[in-house]
Amino acid sequence: MFAAAMMFASCGSKTTTMEKEMNTLSFNQEQAAFMSAIACNEAKADYTALAEAINGGLDVGLTVCQIKEALSQLYAYTGFPRSLNALGTLQKVLEQRQSEGKATEEGVEASPLPSHYNALVQGTEVQTKLSGQPFNYVFCPAEDYYLKAHLFGDIFARDNLTHADRELITVSALSGLENVMPQLQAHVRGALNMGVTEEQLRSIPVALKAAGLQAEALRCEAAIAAAVDGKNDVVCAQSPWPIGEPNIAYAKYFIGNSYLAVLNPASGLYNVSFEPGCRNNWHVHHGAVQMLICVSGRGWYQEWGKEAIPLVPGTVIAVPEGVKHWHGAAKDSWMQHLTYHANATPGNSNEWLEPVTDEQYDTLK
């Protein structure tokens, strides 16, 4: 465990051993995966899934103090109600484990702060490192003080989680919240600045997918793509609809990458996700009407010999039986649509035809 007096030594030209430790994850790969699931489910207020993630984390060696610290920290990002409910969930899990005789490691609480500790000074230093430059929220000085002195000062000073640990937890939690993409992208960059490696960062959405958090994983992947890779096609990440798996079986009929999520096998309801620029070939449905319902992003639908129709959330297309057509994403946006067949007759089929050429596609504005 880290000594507080050493942790707050003034920074010089050399990096101390203690500083290096604070910039390293204290979790192994398996523990980090469960901690990501714990943080994300806390943010979603899914306490049943949270209990499962806590149990799994304790089974692979996360300590009670580590999980307690993570759930306490998250009040600054998700609010006191979620944090308190999550801590209550942790208590119930511990009671259940005790009744079942399961081994649980308590861990170590944070060290006392040194008498000369200055939260504002220390927090300003931590925030500057996380942001990559000085950050002053002059529009609201009170909020600026809370961020520096309390969040990055008082909370980040607690040494039973490293700074890298705390950023992994924060990125995982923000991935569970809608409409906070600017903050998520900022903390993706901050995680790298605080010592999370790129490999560890890209493991977060992998862990979220493994925990059944598909939309949250997509949101995290999009933030990483924007903040690390410079790609700004994040609209699909705001959708609650799952991206699914790579559409390998039909890849030969698509230009670009598409993904398929089976929503209801009995009714044949699917969600298809198209990356920017992706479209399927011209094709015809025989013996069925195809229904398309755009739910995310922007795209195009076009029938042979007619003008293309924009696809935006809420657009509903009934593709007539026997009509040659194609559909796909816009050049600069992901697109998701639901699809199913109506008025299907026995023996209905799809006839795949030629690709939509770049010359045809590039005329669409």
Structure description:
The protein is α+β, with helices and mostly antiparallel strands and 365 residues long. Helices cover 43% and strands 17% of the residues. It has two domains: 4-117 and 157-232, AhpD-like, CATH 1.20.1290; 245-361, Jelly Rolls (Sandwich). The chain has helices at residues 4-7, 17-22, 29-44, 47-59, 64-73, 75-78, 80-100, 119-131, 141-155, 163-174, 181-193, 198-210, 214-227, 358-361; strands at 245-246, 254-255, 258-264, 269-274, 279-280, 283-286, 289-297, 299-303, 309-311, 316-319, 325-329, 335-342, 349-352. Helix 5 (64-73) runs antiparallel to helix 7. The longest helix has 21 residues, at 80-100.
Map the helices and strands.
Blueprint: H1 4-7, H2 17-22, H3 29-44, H4 47-59, H5 64-73, H6 75-78, H7 80-100, H8 119-131, H9 141-155, H10 163-174, H11 181-193, H12 198-210, H13 214-227, E1 245-246, E2 254-255, E3 258-264, E4 269-274, E5 279-280, E6 283-286, E7 289-297, E8 299-303, E9 309-311, E10 316-319, E11 325-329, E12 335-342, E13 349-352, H14 358-361
Antiparallel strand pairs: 1-3, 2-5, 3-4, 4-12, 6-13, 7-10, 7-12, 8-9, 8-11
Helix pairs in contact: 3-4, 3-10, 3-12, 4-7, 5-7, 8-9, 10-11, 11-13, 12-13
